[in-house]
Amino acid sequence: MSTTNHTKTLIIGAGPAGYTAAIYAARANLQPIQLLGPQPGGQLTITTDVENYPGFKDVIQGPWLMEQMHAQAAHVGTDMRYESVEKVDFSKRPFTVHTDSEVTYTADTVIIATGAQAKWLDIPSEAHFRGYGVSGCATCDGFFFKNKNVAVIGGGNSAVEEAIYLTNHCAHVTLIHRRDTLRAEKIAQDRLFKNPKISVIWDTAVEEFLGTDQPVRSLTALRLKNLKTKAITDHNFDGAFVAIGHTPMSAIFNQLQRDSEGYVVTTPGSTATSITGVFAAGDVQDKVFRQAVTAAGQGCMAALEAEKLLSH
């Protein structure tokens, strides 16, 4: 039998943005309910070493950081529910949200913090070495490959930007692309081709990620297939960055304005969406920075903006 709950602020999602929104909303006495979704903690639950989150001089673990945020949000009074959203109705206030547990929520304001998922090649060996030489975020993990040789897989803006960024740390960067031309913007391509630390392997796909499990698991090479000649060769790399894009978890929010890639559109300098009272924070609306610290900042913004709206 379905039940209905009402709250001033409903938070959908539980990564850095969602947890921070919950902390600020609870402290503002908005009595938030947070729907944690299928993967509480988001992408940080599959991130091992985190070295760039402020406040920790030593390397911390992504899952541990999310556990701490979860505990803090609960401690200040957030009502957390292990449910996933299946359908929303933002056509009128209070907004209505239906979950997989047949529970209906109504809310005066909603904060969407469902995040995004990195696209992967879905090769079994890719998953085996993820976090052990295979990464989906150069900004997060590039520092660990100082003076090493790495590969970037992809041909769009993300791949080109990550390759250029990695030259700040790595001895050499090899971009591997399935086609003979890049999809990235012309100005980004010009920067890439002019960089002496970057080379490109064209018309090539990754067949397998190679490495060792002893004494520690680590990537050592990529097995590549030339899509024109069908030749298969092994190339030594210390790390590989898969940069074929992200998918924002926004499909059910089709009442909101979204861009061509599915990211929720927000007002510049704000987390406000195209519907008054609905806010979006973190990777579901941010395709530029995609960092835990910026997601947390946006979660704070969303809660403060929700509080301001409700106070009026």
Describe, in plain words, how this protein is organized in 3D.
By secondary structure, this protein is an alpha/beta fold. Helices cover 24% and strands 29% of the residues. It has 7 helices and 19 strands. The strands form 5 sheets. Strands 1, 2, 5, 6, 7, 8 and 19 form a 7-stranded mixed beta sheet that branches. A 5-stranded parallel beta sheet has the order 10-17-11-12-13. A 3-stranded antiparallel beta sheet has the order 14-15-16. Strand 1 (3-12), helix 1 and strand 2 form a beta-alpha-beta unit. Helix 1 runs parallel beside helix 2 and helix 5 runs parallel beside helix 6. It is elongated, with a radius of gyration of 21 Å.
What class, by secondary structure content?
Answer: alpha/beta
Q: pLDDT below 50 for ≥5 consecutive residues: which ranges?
A: none
| Tally of DSSP helical segments | 7
Q: How are helices and strands ordered from N to C?
A: EHEEEHEEEEEHEHEHEHEEEEEEEH
Mean pLDDT: 94
Instruction: Give the % helix.
Output: 10-25%
Shape: elongated
What is the β-strand count?
Answer: 19
Please report which band the strand proportion falls in: under 5%, 5-15%, 15-25%, 25-35%, 35-45% or over 45%: 25-35%
The description of the largest β-sheet is: 7 strands, mixed
Query: How large is the radius of gyration?
Result: 21 Å
Q: Report how far the terminal alpha carbons are from each other.
A: 36 Å
